[in-house]
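Researcher: Let's run the pair from yesterday's discussion. Sequence first, then tokens, for each.
Model: Starting with the first of the pair.
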Amino acid sequence: MIVLDTTILVYALGSDHPLQAPCRRLIEAVTEGRVEASTTTEVVQEFVHVRARRHGREDASRQGRDYAALLAPLLPIGESSLLLGLRLFEEHPELGAFDAVLAATAIANVVDALVSADRAFGHVRGLPYVDPSTSGMARLLL
């Protein structure tokens, strides 16, 4: 199973961008059942927040519900993931607190990859990270 970061959800539905096509292909693969993926409630919430700025609350909420259903069951963030995330936040100045907790959740769930356009994830030892602009993304879609 892979974990999707907010960037993947945003680019898949966004306007013209170099990462739009690979992110859309990944979401299509999940929709078709070729790739098993999940995320957290926090990622869906962040997506809705970002989407609402350009497309309004109704559209953002609808798309957020669609993503929540597609990526269910969503991964819980328990106390141990939070504590690991806080440690990662301290150790990796390039990671924000939100991303550090997402990385910890992915590590705790022993996922095949965390997919994100945010390259800061690549600095976290023990986290299998895939940038959607790299050949690693193509391997996920095989």
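Model: Moving on to the second of the pair.
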Amino acid sequence: MIADSPLVKAFWEHGRLDECPVIDMHGHMGPWPAIYFPRPEPEQMLVSMDQAGVRRLVFSSHEALFSAATGNDYTARVVRRWPDRFSGLMVINGNYMDIVERDMARFDAMRDAFIGLKFLAAYHNVALDDPRYDKVWAFAAERKLLVTCHTWGHGNMNGPAQVRAVAERFPEVRLSMAHSCYGMWEEAAQLARDFPHVYCDLTAVFECRGALELFCERGISRRMLFGTDLPWFSPLQGIGSVLSADITDDDRRNILHRNAESLLAPLLAAGR
């Protein structure tokens, strides 16, 4: 299936394809303590994106992950400078509900910068289904926002059980499982099968042989989103994994751009 794929052959020959753009639904930006990134700033990340044929990156800044009070504003500034290349996710931290209330109050005036919200339950030690987040989920549901949640298997903060709990209560939310409940692939696939508004974000999944094939075999090719954690990992790694997986070209196009295009269209329109 790989050897006779026209799409794979074209990528290997040209390195990128305008007819098959890549949309990265999971990135970050800026410096990070105790690690060196060669290209962490927006201008540098655009170089990485252009080299790999990535048309758009959906991201939350590193600063916002642990200081939403200032980091969400950084994200907005970047998106407003490059609106055709970046889209922002507003980070929500349940430990600082005053900041959450502030950002929710001004979200509608910032729709040009933000297409949705970002939860890091295990990092913030506030579970996805914690009652503190009820008003935030309701807020996102009312606006049919994208909510990207850091998920991981075998945990009690952001595992399959917590995802299922919020997916059942808020079907209007477009819920993206970042890392696809890492390691619990069957459970992640079942969630995407059970809920048409739940997506498997493939960030970090690429390193696990057979995971992409399993997802496609389970019939969720139209519910898989390409993601890299840029600048942590190169888009080329993820693209190579998709091209090398034993899946169809139709699956590859779904993962690389079709699913994201369908998901983003109404969200981007709301910010214009």
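Researcher: Give me one sentence on the second I can quote.
Model: The beta strands are 22-27, 54-59, 86-92, 114-119, 146-152, 174-182, 198-201, 224-225.
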